[in-house]
Design brief:
There is one protein chain. The chain is α+β, with helices and mostly antiparallel strands. It has a domain of 237 residues: Dipeptide-binding Protein, Domain 3 (Dipeptide-binding Protein, domain 3, Roll), CATH 3.10.105.10. A hairpin with a 2-residue loop joins strand 4 and strand 5. Helix 16 packs antiparallel against helix 17.
Amino acid sequence: MVRKSFFLATAASLLLAVTAANAANLIVGSSTEPSSIDPQFSRTGNNQNIAMQVFDRLLETDTTIGIHPALAVSWTNIDPLTWHVKLREGVKFHDGSPLTAEDVMFSLTRAKNIPNSPAPFSGNVASIDSMKALDDLTIEFKTKKPTPDFIEQVGFVYIVSKKAAETATIEDFNSGKAAIGTGAYKFTSWTPGDNVTLTRNDAFWGKAQDFDKVTIKFISNDASRVAALRSGSVDLIDAVPPGDVKTITATSGLQVYSIPSARLIYLALDTARDQSPFVTDKAGKPLEKNPLKDKKVRVALSQLINRQLIIDRILDGSGEAAGQLVPGGVAGNDESIEAAAYKPEEAKKALADAGYPEGFGITLHTSNDRFPGDSEVAQALGQMFARGGLKVNGVVAQPYNVYTKAASAQEFSAFIFSLGNSTPTSATGLRNLLMTNNKEAGTGSFNRTRYSDPVFDGMMNEAMAEFDPEQRIQLLQQATKYVFADMPVLPLYWQKVHWAGKANITYDANMTEDTSATLAKLVK
């Protein structure tokens, strides 16, 4: 009787879902919530998932990070310092005003100085020396130095309406007043802690969308998100826990969409400061000398990590052990670099050689809602470090909106973070994550530990100025080999990502891990 009741309830919910789908409405259960509707406020995935539905960029990517024209239809390198970019004709903002070169130039200028941004776009526009409109749809750019990947840099900045955003505050975007884009959907409302609602833009320049209304519900708890899909209260979910993939796949009326991603999960280490806030002696007293500055210590920590065990036990196989920024298949990956092996005895010797035979105390910080298993991975790292002789004073998990701000403010000593590579090469990721933090130069935008190595910076500057594609990739590989030998961050794994939805919906699984109604379609 219980089984029959459950079956009838499930069948009813799925029937209702089909009816809702026929009405062309989509309800998405999202694991994360944006910190702002301003598309330029933060490059983090929680913000970009909303931004990409309302706003557009000069370029767009396909499911395997290939780049394609979007608001820009062509770009021409006139000489080493000059580019001409032609914009798409007939594009209109949601208020009916036409997209012009002025909007693009305003957007790229605005992106330099967004107050309190935890992950700014400043690096994307740092190479621009000047901009000039040749006509309403053509822009001439001058760069400060030769920049072969110029279009990849500026091409991923979201374009806002100059008229709507010129005097707008972040509150104006959050209320919808300034949230005027050219995207496939129009912003309707944001109820923090609950949902964002969107409506279809019937004047969209691109492909017609299948859904009249989209509601994105924020469900950070994995079990609750899966339960919402199985009960029929949402049509599609992201960040499917690896342990639920088999169960959902075997459930009638549901299906899973999966792809290996280019997102690196890593442990960031405070290598820059002489004293670090969460490093102590074994008695819990602050250490005057920060052991994380010592490469021997960083090597030891890496050797204490059993990456494959994390992948097998916590991720149910949904990952690949990593030793560098990008996986195979992304230009810049060096096949000779392997993930660090689990060598606990060698690690203990390295700690002793560094002057810490009894270890030291450390606290690990992590998000608890950014990617599947983030807090569980941190707990596992804590246990591995403790077995290696360290005193783990705590493992602290926080909601991502709070966590990312604290990490950017250098409040932690050792913390788990991730970087999703969204361009065809490793150049942008290396520049943002590991080059010296320099706002004027546009480097180190995501360098939350303030790691700095002039040799690496020089290698990257050489690579980024090389126009020959093959030579440029070789230079990126050399820079990668050099910097990851120094272990400023400890790569853990590249994750495999999963979405799940009802059988009357298809979804384009993508390496950039975007969750967007633009990637969902009704089964006709």
